[in-house]
Fold this sequence. Notes:
The longest helix has 23 residues, at 259-281. The chain has 14 helices and six strands. The protein has a six-stranded parallel beta sheet with strand order 3-2-4-1-5-6, sandwiched between helices. α2 (55-60) links the parallel β2 and β3 (63-64). The protein is globular and about 60 Å long. The termini are close together. It has helices at residues 19-30, 55-60, 77-93, 105-113, 123-136, 138-148, 150-155, 161-174, 178-185, 203-219, 222-231, 245-254, 259-281, 297-303; strands at residues 7-11, 32-36, 63-64, 97-101, 193-200, 286-290. By secondary structure, the chain is α/β, with parallel strands linked by helices. The chain has two domains: 1-114 and 189-305, P-loop containing nucleotide triphosphate hydrolases (Rossmann fold, 3-Layer(aba) Sandwich), CATH 3.40.50; 123-184, Histone, subunit A (Orthogonal Bundle), CATH 1.10.20.140. α5 (123-136) crosses α8 (161-174).
Amino acid sequence: MSKDRSEILVVVGPTASGKTALAVRLAEVLGGEIVTADSVQVYRRFDIGAGKPTSDERARARHHLIDVVEPLEPMDASRFAELADRAIVEIRGRGRVPIVCGGTFLWVRALLYGLAEAPPGDLAIRDAHRAVAETEGRDALHRRLAAVDPVAAERLAPNDFVRVSRALEVYEQSGVPLTTWHERHGFRERRHVARLVGIERTGPELDGRIAARTQAMLDAGWVDEVRALLADGFGDARPMKAVGYRQIAEALARGVFERDELAAEIVRKTRVFARRQRTWLKDEPVLWLAEPERRSDVELERSVQ
């Protein structure tokens, strides 16, 4: 880690790659605290499927921005950056090292570079998009985006309603594609000096970890967690659209499902999500560490300097 006390460490990588374990280890070695950048872990009651740190991990390192909003409360990249800035100031005030950790890379980018000043959200437009998705299918909405912003459409999956709608919403409000807004912003002026690190995993290794984690979450009661959330009226909560939560909610709605089939579907969707995460990171200056769990504390500290 640099001697520059203004620097923060950012642990990134695809889902199931071991980000939390690495961040906790680094916090112990460097004297740090963890700021979570995960769009599901910020929500209360979304626990098992969010992969929140265990009680042991939280005891070993102080975590921030977990369980900070209610299930139906809005939370976006801008608000995350504001809360993360505040946490980073507090961590530095205690003479500790801020370690940002999470797989929601839009939030990480918002923290490091800020956000493009595109038009604000419009609820009426979002409702109109939702109606299109419900009557014509999400693919229809994605095709509309492809016609006006092909770069954004290529980057976003058709089922990613929130981001597809937002990209289309920006164009409908301004006549300018969201991609152009991002190009104008450039994401070149850093708000924080940061060093990005991640764990190097082969494709088969990551696939195996995704499958194992999915089974462990189902064994821990993930289906019952989703059932309770739905019973309490949180079916429209934003984190319910996350991979895994969506598939379980849909299976419960059907009434009859096989666990093995459900697990296979979640694994398949998670692998697709992991590929999109790798795409986000391909142009970022990430220091990829091979088998950090096998390194001594001294070796690990040296590796991130």
